[in-house]
Amino acid sequence: MVLLTESTPKMVEDYEKIDADVFDLKVIYTWVLNHKRKFFYVLCKDAKSFIKTVAKSVTLIEAAGGLVKSENNTFLFIYRNNKWDLPKGKIEKGEKVKEAAVREVEEECGIKVNKLEEKICKTYHVYIFKGDVVLKKTHWFMMRCKGQYKLKPQKEEGITDVRWFNKEHIEPILKNTFPSIIDVLVKEKLITGTPVLL
């Protein structure tokens, strides 16, 4: 995990510093993958400006998704590619971010979103696609769902399970998810602090 920050991390001894002046995502990403159990940070004057510069150096894909809450106060999660995740997907050409978020949630889970609420946050994650480093920027929204739907995982998207979880029972998710999903859950106060991902 690489943290872009404008101040030194609280537990700096747990991190290794990467110099912002020589940061090249294409090079750094492969190197970070070979050091999976380590945390890294880049100290920069303006994190938003820095991420924009990084995005120009690689392929940027914009996506949108949501954290869906039921009328029973449970939260919707999907199981995709052997990890717990939140429903999200690529924004189509000419589509508004909010429309994409709702569409992706409905398609991936087989539900109907009744209310789109506030934007939670944006997250970034990196992966390799066809040999190239790709930066995915995801816009996350809070959503509401009423009624009992027969959840239907979108199998063609690699989703094998869709489930509602009580806030008190999301421990299995925290043990097998992505740092970006943890960020969303922390922002919405479903969890406090940031658990260490193994």
From TrEMBL:
InterPro entries: Nudix_hydrolase (IPR020476), NUDIX_hydrolase-like_dom_sf (IPR015797), NUDIX_hydrolase_CS (IPR020084), NUDIX_hydrolase_dom (IPR000086)
CDD domains per record: NUDIX_Ap6A_hydrolase
All residue ranges annotated as the Nudix hydrolase domain in the record: 59-188
Protein name per its UniProtKB record: 8-oxo-dGTP pyrophosphatase MutT (NUDIX family)
Classification lineage: Bacteria, Pseudomonadati, Bacteroidota, Sphingobacteriia, Sphingobacteriales
Keyword Iron-sulfur listed: no
GO MF entries: hydrolase activity
Pfam families from the UniProt entry: NUDIX
Keywords per UniProt: Hydrolase, Magnesium
Similarity-based family: Belongs to the Nudix hydrolase family.
Cofactor section: Mg(2+)
